[in-house]
């Protein structure tokens, strides 16, 4: 599971970094610290949830590229190579302008919708056929440029709701691993 964002404290609170924030939550849940990896990323191996009977759930690698968003493909491919992960087992967690703020949607494959991080990953892997946790940030207000919008910090109102969004997106990512895409879609795409 890879969360997308831009490196450094300047970008840490940006809407574009919500994927990296979700990976931080997954690492926290797995009682792991993301550590620097030779793949130009930070990564950790965690267990996802619990199996019936209380046994630890499946093992997963979580990571965040240390490159800028538009260069995410190289570090993602290097992590996948190091941990022997096939593209059909890759889950990319990213911000999505075309989904209302606070909502989470899941899919496999498809286009990049102008998202440079996805474009870089698809180009590096030679396929668009990987799983995606799309974290809704909504459209920019008025005539604001989309690039300016994603590179701004969440508003004070959005920050109040952010823990719930990160929790929901982390739940969705875990459910894809433990129960599969279709079951996760049924849960997260249904009206509450």
UniProtKB/TrEMBL annotation:
Site (Stabilizes the basic form of H active site to accept a proton): residue numbering on this chain: 95
Instruction: State a single Gene Ontology molecular function.
Output: hydrolase activity
Q: What is its main location?
A: cytoplasm
Catalyzed reactions: an N-acyl-L-alpha-aminoacyl-tRNA + H2O = an N-acyl-L-amino acid + a tRNA + H(+)
Q: Which keywords label this protein?
A: Cytoplasm, Hydrolase, RNA-binding, tRNA-binding
- Which compartments is it annotated to reside in? Cytoplasm
**Chain sites annotated for binding tRNA:** 11, 68, 70, 116
SUPFAM superfamilies (UniProt xref): Peptidyl-tRNA hydrolase-like
Classification via InterPro entries = Pept_tRNA_hydro, Pept_tRNA_hydro_CS, Pept_tRNA_hydro_sf
Q: Which Pfam families match?
A: Pept_tRNA_hydro
EC number annotated for this UniProt entry: 3.1.1.29
Task: List the residue(s) that the UniProt entry marks as the site Discriminates between blocked and unblocked aminoacyl-tRNA.
Answer: 6
> What residues make up the catalytic site?
16
Q: What does this protein do?
A: Hydrolyzes ribosome-free peptidyl-tRNAs (with 1 or more amino acids incorporated), which drop off the ribosome during protein synthesis, or as a result of ribosome stalling. Catalyzes the release of premature peptidyl moieties from peptidyl-tRNA molecules trapped in stalled 50S ribosomal subunits, and thus maintains levels of free tRNAs and 50S ribosomes.
What is this protein's record name? Answer: Peptidyl-tRNA hydrolase
Q: Write down the species.
A: Pedococcus aerophilus
């Amino acid at each position: 599971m890879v969360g997308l964002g831009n490196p450094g404290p300047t970008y840490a609170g940006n809407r574009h970094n919500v994927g990296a924030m979700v990976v931080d939550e997954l690492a926290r849940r797995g009682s792991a610290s993301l550590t620097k990896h030779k793949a130009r990323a930070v990564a950790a191996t965690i267990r996802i949830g619990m199996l019936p009977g209380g046994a630890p759930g499946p093992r997963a690698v979580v990571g965040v590229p240390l490159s800028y968003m538009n260069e995410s493909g190289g570090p993602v491919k290097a992590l996948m190579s190091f941990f022997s992960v096939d593209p059909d087992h890759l889950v990319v967690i990213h911000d999505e302008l075309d989904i209302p703020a606070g909502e989470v949607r899941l899919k496999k494959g498809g286009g990049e919708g102008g998202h440079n991080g996805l474009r870089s990953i698809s180009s590096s892997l030679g396929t668009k056929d990987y799983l995606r946790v799309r974290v809704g940030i909504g459209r920019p207000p008025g005539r604001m440029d989309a690039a300016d919008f994603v590179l701004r910090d969440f508003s004070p109102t959005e920050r109040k709701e952010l823990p719930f969004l990160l929790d929901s997106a982390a739940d969705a990512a875990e459910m894809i691993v433990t129960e599969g895409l279709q079951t996760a879609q049924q849960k997260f795409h249904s009206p509450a």
